[in-house]
Amino acid sequence: MLFDAFEMNKVGEFEDGNGGTCCEPIFDKDDDGDRYDRVFWTVYGHKPEGSVEALVDRTEKEDAQAIYEFFCLLLESYTDEGYN
Question: How many angstroms separate the CA atoms of 5 and 27, rounded?
Fold first, then answer.
């Protein structure tokens, strides 16, 4: 099985001062992200060995939520059928 769970987080992107950018998760639900140059949502897949992989970035939370829910449904149907 490639992924055994999924999650979705708000992410803030800012200039790193060297001509590039850095991204960091925004865990505080009350943080509106004003201090960032860009705010978006990322859906992550959790691998069975413990690592995490960013799968999809979306500007709109609703779009990321729909993708997250779709991945969760796929995983649920996959494990319900005994493919794990």
Answer: 19
pLDDT tens track for 8-43: 999 999 999 999 999 999 999 899 899 999 999 999
Q: How far is CA 26 from the centre of its chain?
A: 11
Query: What are the two backbone dihedrals, phi and then psi, of residue 28, each rounded to the nearest 5 degrees?
Result: -75, 115
Boundaries of domain holding 39: 5-80
Query: In total, how many domains does the chain have?
Result: 1
Q: Measuring CA to CA, which residue among 41, 36, 31 is closest to residue 16?
A: 36
pTM of the model: 0.85
